[in-house]
Design a protein that fits this description.
The protein is α/β, with parallel strands linked by helices. The protein has two domains: 34-219 and 312-325, Rossmann fold (3-Layer(aba) Sandwich); 227-307, Rossmann fold, CATH 3.40.50. The chain contains twelve helices and 14 strands. The two termini are 39 Å apart. Pathway: Glycolipid biosynthesis; lipid IV(A) biosynthesis; lipid IV(A) from (3R)-3-hydroxytetradecanoyl-[acyl-carrier-protein] and UDP-N-acetyl-alpha-D-glucosamine: step 6/6. It catalyses: a lipid A disaccharide + ATP = a lipid IVA + ADP + H(+). InterPro entries: LpxK (IPR003758), P-loop_NTPase (IPR027417).
Amino acid sequence: MRAPGFWYRPPGLASGVLAPLGGLYGYATARRLRARPGYRAGVPVICLGNITIGGTGKTPSAMDMLMRLAARGHSPHVLSRGHGGALKGPLRVDPAQHSAADVGDEPLLLSAFAPVWIGPDRAATARAAEAAGADVLVMDDGFQNPGLAQDLPICVVDAARGFGNGRVIPAGPLREPVPTGLARARLLLSIGDDAAQAQFAQRWGQAIGGLPHLRARLEPLATGMPWGQLRVLPFAGIGDPEKFFATLRGLGADLVGTVPLDDHQPLSPALLQRLSAEAQAKGAQLVTTEKDAVRLPPAMRAQVLTLPVRLRIEDAAPLDAALDTLGL
């Protein structure tokens, strides 16, 4: 499902009509968060979540956090709900046995960086990870989940989209009001280029207040691929496919078309056959994101190029300081 366009425009008639329902949604979220104290793990818990619906860059942020913690000598484990997977857990993701259909695409992708546990019960997955030797837990999403106490909640936001029209579902993209969500965060991480960051600061600076603010961008990983010499047909089932297409253009690739898909959209045989036929007819190479690539059937992976991206934080001092306070 794609977000309604009015979510990212100034409040108007549609969002105004739906605002009372948004108020009820926000109330329900607040009540759930107050319902009971979460399980207090015996190791630090870091949460990378958001207060909006849709992709904000949480998975690249989790990759960066895992590499950062490993560089500090720790053994982080990831806790994920396993969205899109048929298995419910709690279980540890095994890339040799599990597919994206089993455990979800994001957990399968993150399993290349650290052990990943999936399951709807965050306390249960936390206990399993602790028993397996984790000395720090990284929650991929779960900012509004009260089941596990969070030592370092980080709110991740797409700088270009910001917090949309500032209203709660269904009137806008928010899971809870901005002041309420940011009050629980210890850090804010906005992801986007310089123009997007400036726009975000101008629109939301007052709401951010004195909350420590990390600014970052997604950069293509240097792989030696001569993108500037390629005709490509890119497809992407992520929160904002246009960002992926723009990255390819920035690398000089010749895009003969673009195929935006819904976030986590299954790559059915019919869809893949259509993509292959279109690429062949246009003399182009299929290319996709890392997250989409793990959903490809094994026989198809050799036919599709992947463009990996990594998070680059401008000034990580506030994050380093927060990790230091947790003994990490």
